[in-house]
Amino acid sequence: MKAVFLDRDGVVVADGNYQFKTSDMKILDGVPQAIIRLNQAGYLVIIVSNQSGVARGYFTEADVVSFNTYLVVELKKAGAKIDAAYYCPHHATEAKVKKYLLDCDCRKPKPGMLIRAAKEHGISLSESWMIGDKISDVKAGKSAGCRTVYIGKEKNSGADATVAAISNAVEFILSKG
Ligand SMILES: [Mg+2]
Description:
The chain has a single domain (6-176), classed as Rossmann fold. The chain is an alpha/beta fold. The protein has five helices and six strands, in the order E-H-E-H-E-H-E-H-E-E-H. Magnesium ion binds at residues 7, 9-11, 15, 133-134. Magnesium ion is lined by residues 7, 9-11, 15, 133-134.
């Protein structure tokens, strides 16, 4: 299988500051349509998200799971399928909740979530892509052996493409195969 990994905050939903309430969720323009195109092209679509708000004590893992579940359901109503959602609750230095104080291998820019997803879903990482709005997303994708698309204004993102919106990212990916 090939996959497109999506960062969550700033790519799929508007980037609230450590948001966890479903009432605050705003799915960004063009996202359902972009995901539908990836679904139709045979890509698994998988969310990979750093959620250090768990480590910082702002919200719990259960909050992250309910936010993600709600997001998946809302997208499904629009016809867009998310195949899985992974998150990293850790932080190596700023955790207030002791059990999440960990120099883990899953917090982006590390590639742990992508590698785990690849194992669990039989994904070929070299045929897969990471779309993100931070350089840490690009780094995680590259470390996992994926190609990458960066959404944003940073000049030297290191990604295969730098674009303004998710629709452009999907356009680029589908043009490369
Ligand atoms: Mg982001």
